[in-house]
Structures are given as structure tokens and as C-alpha cells.
Design a protein that fits this description.
This protein has 73 residues and is mostly helical. The protein has helices at residues 2-8, 33-41, 59-72, and strands at 15-17, 23-25. Strand 1 (15-17) and strand 2 form a beta hairpin. It starts with a helix and ends with a helix.
């Protein structure tokens, strides 16, 4: 797995899709540089996600939901 991550440069998430287009990940995930920059640049656009009452820790929902929202929009 380490070799695949190193050479493919992809972010890795173990996730399930929740209702209303929210994605829940485990607490273990890896962001590549491109996705980390996307999160930083869009923090104001997706600020509303920080206030949503979701079961679990917000980091298990926020990052992948933002990234998937960008892909789907």
C-alpha cells in the first residue's frame, strides 16, 4: 500500500456514503497535496458543513464531503 500511495499520489479514504450526499470516513485517511490545497482554498465555500450536526467527529465527514462535492458539481 505504501508503494501504491507513493507512486500514484492519490488521496486514500475508507468511506461510506451517508444521506444527503455526506461521506463518512474512518479516522485514518491520507490527503495528497492537490486535495489538501483544495480543502484550504474552499474553506469559506463549505463553511456551512462545519455547523451540521452529524454523528461522530466532524473531520470524519468534512474533508471527503468537500472533495466529493467538487467532483460532483
Amino acid at each position: 500500500l505504501r508503494k501504491e500511495i507513493k507512486y500514484e499520489g492519490l488521496s486514500c479514504f475508507d468511506y461510506i456514503k451517508k444521506q444527503d450526499n455526506y461521506y463518512k470516513t474512518s479516522q485514518w485517511w491520507i490527503l495528497n497535496k492537490k486535495d489538501a490545497i483544495t480543502i484550504i482554498k474552499t474553506v469559506n465555500k463549505y463553511k456551512y458543513l462545519q455547523n451540521i450536526k452529524l454523528a461522530g467527529a466532524i473531520d470524519e465527514f468534512y474533508f471527503l464531503t468537500v472533495l466529493m462535492s467538487g467532483i460532483n458539481s
